[in-house]
Automatic annotation (TrEMBL):
It is found in: Golgi apparatus membrane. This is Protein kish. It comes from Leptonychotes weddellii (Weddell seal). The gene is TMEM167A. Keywords: Golgi apparatus, Membrane, Signal, Transmembrane, Transmembrane helix. The keyword Signal applies. It is a single-pass type I membrane protein.
Length: 72
C-alpha cells in the first residue's frame, strides 16, 4: 500500500521530509533559501517547521519510531 492511502505511512513521510529539510538547511542554507515560493518552496516551509517546532517534531519522531518498531 502506498504512503498516500495509509495514514501512519503518510505521517512518517511528512516527518522524514521535515527532518531532512531542516538538516539540509542547517548544512547549506543557500540551497533552500533561494526557493521560498513555488513548488520548491514546500521544502523551505518544511525546513522552517523543523527549525521552529523542533522539540515537538523530535517527540513525534520518537513516538513514530516506537510505534513502527514495537506496535506493527
Amino acid at each position: 500500500m502506498s504512503a498516500i492511502f495509509n495514514f501512519q505511512s503518510l505521517l512518517t513521510v511528512i516527518l522524514l521530509l521535515i527532518c531532512t529539510c531542516a538538516y539540509i538547511r542547517s548544512l547549506a542554507p543557500s540551497l533552500l533559501d533561494k526557493n521560498k515560493t513555488g513548488l520548491l518552496g514546500i521544502f523551505w516551509k518544511c525546513a522552517r517547521i523543523g527549525e521552529r517546532k523542533s522539540p515537538y517534531i523530535a517527540v513525534c519522531c520518537v513516538v513514530m519510531a516506537f510505534s513502527i518498531l514495537f506496535i506493527q
